[in-house]
Amino acid sequence: MSDDQLVIAGREFGSRLIMGTGGAGNLSVLERALVASGTELTTVAMRRMDAEGGTGVLDLLRRLAIQPLPNTAGCRTAAEAVLTARLAREALGTDWVKLEVVADDDTLLPDPHELLDAAETLVVEGFSVLPYTNDDPVLARRLQDAGCVAVMPLGSPIGTGLGIRNPHNIELIVSRATVPVILDAGIGTASDAALAMELGCEAVLLATAVTRAQHPELMAAAMRAAVEGGRLARRAGRIPQRFWAHASSPPREH
Amino acid sequence: MRIRLNGKETALATGSTVVDALALLGAPDSGVAVAVDGDVVPRGQWQTELREDAVVEVLTAVQGG
User: Fold this and answer.
1) Is A98 an annotated catalytic residue?
2) Residue A180, CB half-sphere, CA atoms under 13 Å: how many?
3) pLDDT, tens digit (0-9, with 9 covering 90-100), for A62-91
4) Where do the domains of chain A lie, and which CATH numbers do they carry?
5) A/B interface, count of CB pairs below 8 Å
6) Domains and CATH numbers, chain B
7) Selected residue of A18, A30, A49, A152 to mutate for chain B interface (largest B Cβ count, 10 A)
8) How near does any CA of chain B get to the CA of A206, in Å?
């Protein structure tokens, strides 16, 4: 809806679905999925250039007029993440960064100490930092206080498709947020994305759920509709849940 | 001289610059960034000569996240 823009760091987006580019079998599958998703902001990773050249993903995003959001995926320490962000700024000409500092390969869970440390450094250096964080309301608040332009709590670990395992924590994060809360990681299917929006998240970031679906383009369309539906439901204000039935038709004479 | 270019021992003529290292990788003109010994080298300083044993990292954007 044109009167309901997502605003991050003063920049407006018509779409509340942020996509990742990882996991797609090839660029043409990715292109169809990105177009179907309606996304305007999409993550890329930074990796060593090899003799075979890049993957062409930047050219694709440029052609589709989608803003690239470089991430620091694979970084284990604040120092690694800060250097990667600086290189991304140089390579892509953007000071936006999806900050990821993970603790180990089995969980890919954020390392809270290194994450906050990196966020503080990058904010001082003028970056617009969007940190991938645990679903921890205290850490989310610390990141917000550090000057991050959004906080991006996980629903469940990256790539698991387990959905939102602790909806109450997401609500707690939303309730005290002064920057957009973006549900990042764990989305498995459309209902997960809708729930994220119903809980009050401003946007959803996902990749695997679409790129590794049997039909990525179709799932991208499903996610787009789910995010829009969830957002509308949040704005509409849901009915309270009750224990007993409550008739919606007038009582009948017996 | 020898440098370490994206993790590989690489021979370069003495006096070679960042630009020469990029050419070895076939790097495009845009969308790449360079760090030497852990510090970003801005595009404007790519004519800087590399020293012996320099650790050169050249990164670009790939699918991910």
Assistant:
1) yes
2) 26
3) 999 999 999 999 999 999 999 999 999 999
4) 6-48+56-234 (3.20.20.70)
5) 104
6) 2-60 (3.10.20.30)
7) A49
8) 8
